[in-house]
């Protein structure tokens, strides 16, 4: 490092130090002197490498799907129950969180390819924010899921299931970020399975570890009951209220005891909105993130936006 470069790094570090009290400074000193920062640094670099791979996969998917990231044959409709029932076709816009992070979304808005507002009465300044909704988990949320939320011991014998795997983003995240030997995506739409196959072949993803199944999840009781971690995100734009109820009842019947459920929504609130909370009570227990020490690998600004829930099946 040049003299100037070193000087500039020291200035940046001093700027951080100046806001710390003596106790905090002493903790930082220990963290550096007892070398434990090295492990954190190594983990951060690995996470960065994975992120680059996921960005490349996202770029490849963007080339084969429209900007809306919804396929013409999909039957997507705003839900009539639950916390997203304020969404309507008029006030909601799908921006895929895996394909477009906040910066890219902002660029699309600047280029005029995406609007943030909708006009309430067509000719005035009486406009309103559009609701941006994503049908996919973002890279950062996936990284948090596997590196902070879930237990560390996702070893060779574990099976991860993504219910409704869409582009396969969660499968790729699990592939790069865990050692789980079986990573399965079940997706009802054949076209998304074709996209997943295309991506897996392009990025040489080991098909012995990652499998996708083109099926209705209701037909996959064996796969669910053999899974140790189940990721189930917001199906309510894709199924009607009654189908949604049936899927949750089916999950209760099929999940094995001790398995983990990860969702981006509070399950109690979701089940309440479907009027099946009592029937499914005592089924799940909410858990704290298992590897909180890894939060150090994330920007605090990014952490604010992450909404995730981890449950263990009783
Ligand atoms: C909200 S997306 C979730 C994508 C991905 N799991 C994630 O969280 O990033 C839901 C997906 O579930 C699929 N789907 C809907 N109903 C399903 C069912 N009964 N069985 C399997 N997949 C289903 C939809 O086609 C859609 O691609």
TrEMBL record:
Record EC number: 2.1.1.137
Pfam families per UniProt: Methyltransf_31
Gene3D superfamilies listed in its UniProt record: Vaccinia Virus protein VP39 (3.40.50.150)
Methyltransferase domain segment(s): 155-283
InterPro entries tied to this protein: Arsenite_MeTrfase-like, Methyltranfer_dom, SAM-dependent_MTases_sf
Reaction(s) this enzyme catalyzes, per UniProt: arsenic triglutathione + [thioredoxin]-dithiol + S-adenosyl-L-methionine + 2 H2O = methylarsonous acid + [thioredoxin]-disulfide + 3 glutathione + S-adenosyl-L-homocysteine + H(+); arsenic triglutathione + 2 [thioredoxin]-dithiol + 2 S-adenosyl-L-methionine + H2O = dimethylarsinous acid + 2 [thioredoxin]-disulfide + 3 glutathione + 2 S-adenosyl-L-homocysteine + 2 H(+); arsenic triglutathione + 3 [thioredoxin]-dithiol + 3 S-adenosyl-L-methionine = trimethylarsine + 3 [thioredoxin]-disulfide + 3 glutathione + 3 S-adenosyl-L-homocysteine + 3 H(+)
Superkingdom, natural source: Eukaryota
Top EC class of this enzyme: transferase
UniProt cross-references to PANTHER family, sorted A to Z: ARSENITE METHYLTRANSFERASE, RIKEN CDNA 2700097O09 GENE
Similarity-based family: Belongs to the methyltransferase superfamily. Arsenite methyltransferase family.
Name this polypeptide is given: Arsenite methyltransferase
Source organism: Plutella xylostella (Diamondback moth)
Lineage, broadest ranks: Eukaryota, Metazoa, Ecdysozoa, Arthropoda, Hexapoda
């Amino acid at each position: 490092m040049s003299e100037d470069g070193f000087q500039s790094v020291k200035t940046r570090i001093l700027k951080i130090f100046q806001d710390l009290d003596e106790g905090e400074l002493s903790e930082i000193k220990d963290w550096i002197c007892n070398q434990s920062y090295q492990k954190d640094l190594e983990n951060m670099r690995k996470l960065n490498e994975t992120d680059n791979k996921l960005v490349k996969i996202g770029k490849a998917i963007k080339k084969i799907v429209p900007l809306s990231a919804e396929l013409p044959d999909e039957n997507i409709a705003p839900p009539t129950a639950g916390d997203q029932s304020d969404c309507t076709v008029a006030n909601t816009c799908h921006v895929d969180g895996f394909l477009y992070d906040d910066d890219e979304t902002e660029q699309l808005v600047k280029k005029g390819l995406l609007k943030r507002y909708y006009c309430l009465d067509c000719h005035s300044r009486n406009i309103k924010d559009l609701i941006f909704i994503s049908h996919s988990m973002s890279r950062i949320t996936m990284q948090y899921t596997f590196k902070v939320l879930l237990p560390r011991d996702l070893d060779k014998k574990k099976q991860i299931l993504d219910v409704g795997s869409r582009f396969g983003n969660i499968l790729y995240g699990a592939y790069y970020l865990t050692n789980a030997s079986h990573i399965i995506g079940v997706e009802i739409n054949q076209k998304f399975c074709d996209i997943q196959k295309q991506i897996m072949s392009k990025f040489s993803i080991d098909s012995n570890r990652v499998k996708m199944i083109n099926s209705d999840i209701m037909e996959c009781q064996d796969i669910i009951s053999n899974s140790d971690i189940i990721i189930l995100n917001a199906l309510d734009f894709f199924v009607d209220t009654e189908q949604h109820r049936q899927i949750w009842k089916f999950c209760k019947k099929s999940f094995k005891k001790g398995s983990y459920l990860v969702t981006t929504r509070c399950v109690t609130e979701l089940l309440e909105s479907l009027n099946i909370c009592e029937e499914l009570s005592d089924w799940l227990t909410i858990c704290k993130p298992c590897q909180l020490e890894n939060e150090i690998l994330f920007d605090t600004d990014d952490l604010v936006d992450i909404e995730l829930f981890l449950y263990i099946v009783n």
